[in-house]
Amino acid sequence: MIPITDLGQQYNEIKNEISRAVEKVLAEGKYILGPEVTELEERIAAYCGVRYGVGVASGTDALVLSVIAAGIGEGDEVITTPFTFIATIEAVIRAGAKPVFADIDAKTYNINPAEIESKITSKTKAIIPVHLYGLSCDMAAITKIAKKHNLTVIEDCAQSFGAAIGGKITGSFGDFACFSFFPAKNLGCYGDGGMVVTDNKEYADKIKLLRMHGFSADYDYRLHGFNSRLDTLQAAIVNVKMNHIDGWIEKRVENAAKYAEGLKNVKDAEAPFMPPGYKHAMNYYALRISGGRQKRDGLKKYLTEKGIGNNIYYPLSLHLQEICADMGYKKGDYPVSEKTQDEIISLPMYPELGAEKIEFICGEIKKYFRV
Ligand SMILES: Cc1ncc(COP(=O)(O)O)c(C=O)c1O
User: Fold this and answer.
1) For a Cys staple, 84 with which of 18, 100, 130, 166, CB 3.0–4.6 Å?
2) Binding-site residues, ligand 1, Cβ < 6 A
3) What domains are there in the chain, each with its CATH number?
């Protein structure tokens, strides 16, 4: 059995470091917003090349708090991709605003900047680009549009820790950037956690207020906020992982190259596109199977039978989800996203995966396609 991700193997490698870090927190007793949280906030902000990091309870909350801190609310519109995890639009809806979708690019699976401008109305306040699977969106084009129309950019970096364009890291392009430390992410903790990074002091201060009941000092409440702090224990764990993250991403990228080599003769399987100058963080390895849903689902069934972990991120675009019915979208509105949902499948991807297992997986895929 090869899992889609293997967190246990990684834990075994860093077990001693983790135990020391956790024991230190337990002994010190600063369980809420302890020094490890500040340390991690500073490290991640520095990694991204911005001034402020604010630890929050999850990637979802990072988005919710950013949307609210940006002043987005009732009657506003926010443009994003229909090909993402529900949390991206949950944040917009929680703030009382409306998500407006723009179709994705057929090669990168990320929001297509050429589709954004036609969706802008007088109500549009922000764009949320999602760096799907670990590949950065075209941020030059997106920030240009945002500037032209005076829109806030909130990067959804939940899957893109360590991704970059020409050395510039995702998380440094937007007004806000939202990271998730969900365990399966490149930089995951052992539970839920997240962070907002920003180069804007006013925004950072607002997120700090929002994450703790709007509490300023001495029970002086400045905003109606949340209880959304990053646990000190989780911060301590992520601090340990920060010492290893670049090496782990390198290994993910090497694994992706091995997949691409192993599958190069499978004409029905398209490896992830690597635009020149982009560094893919390979959170997920998403293969595109030409020939429609039946063929993709056939491969999924075959791999599962062979004990090879796999998953479909995502089987149904958000505009077609029942809970989005009131937004008035219909089938055919976002053809590229709809085609991609039928053709995509993610294969096992984690740093420790290695050549032997990849060879086996590619061998099984070749058998399925009779190559
Ligand atoms: C694209 C995207 N956005 C947001 C989230 C939400 O992050 P979390 O699970 O930490 O709330 C996730 C992951 O779960 C995600 O993949």
Assistant:
1) 130
2) 58-60, 84-85, 87-88, 130, 156, 158-159, 180, 182, 192, 194
3) 7-242 (3.40.640.10), 245-368 (3.90.1150.10)
